[in-house]
Design goal:
This protein has 209 residues and is mainly alpha-helical. It is 85% helix and 0% strand. It contains nine helices and no strands. The longest helix is centred in the first third of the chain and has 36 residues. The model has no long low-confidence stretch (mean pLDDT 87).
């Protein structure tokens, strides 16, 4: 017999899997899209426009549109969350890359850096604060939106919220809702810590002000 504690644990783990996988896939797709928009000016408008339009689609409609492609599976939820994350990630990555000082690029080229080494060793590290800001927002957003996946049976804690509302079990709804908030806060703080570890120069700059 499945206990309530086990149901809560399973729902929490599913919620973490849905959120983590969708944000990771979103980041994998967003980086090349942002690089394309930065390198090809004609591509910037379409890339930003399409990702913005995707973000305006209501979550229920988004998952319904994806159902014929993925069926009733967790893939529907992951795909929807990936599409929603693209707007936040692409814009922040692009803004971060565009904000890299021109003299930093010129200095690296003068030292013999090729395009790939310039991107990996200079541009992306300097763009990291903006990238991490977008990643934090996308992660918190995914934690919230994942609950809507309950309409297809894969909503993590959203499943408990949905079933609790139908059965008027307020304690279950409250517990699942609080856990969603705690997951979002914990993920945001974790990513903020990672950002500070990866950008020690930003901390040093703040301390010298």
């Amino acid at each position: 017999m499945t206990t309530r504690h086990q149901l809560l644990t399973d729902a929490t783990l599913e919620h973490l899997r849905l959120t983590g996988l969708s944000v990771l896939l979103g980041l994998v797709l967003a980086v090349p899209l942002a690089l394309l928009a930065r390198r090809k000016r004609w591509a910037a408008g379409p890339v930003l426009g399409v990702t913005t339009i995707l973000y305006t689609i209501p979550s229920l409609a988004m998952f319904s549109l994806l159902l014929p492609v993925y069926g009733l599976s967790a893939s529907v939820v992951v795909a929807g969350l990936v599409l929603y994350s693209l707007t936040l990630l692409v814009r922040n990555i692009l803004a971060g890359l565009q904000g890299v000082p021109a003299d930093a690029r010129e200095a690296a080229r003068g030292m013999g850096y090729g395009p790939l080494r310039l991107l990996l060793a200079v541009e992306l590290p300097l763009a990291l604060p903006a990238v991490m800001a977008g990643l934090r927002i996308a992660t918190v957003s995914a934690v919230s939106l994942a609950t809507v996946g309950a309409i297809v049976g894969y909503g993590g804690l959203g499943n408990l919220i949905y079933s609790g509302m139908n059965s008027f079990f307020k304690a279950q709804v409250l517990t699942a809702s609080v856990l969603c908030v705690l997951i979002a806060i914990a993920a945001d703080l974790l990513l903020l810590g990672v950002q500070r570890l990866l950008t020690p120069w930003e901390r040093a700059r703040r301390e010298t002000r």
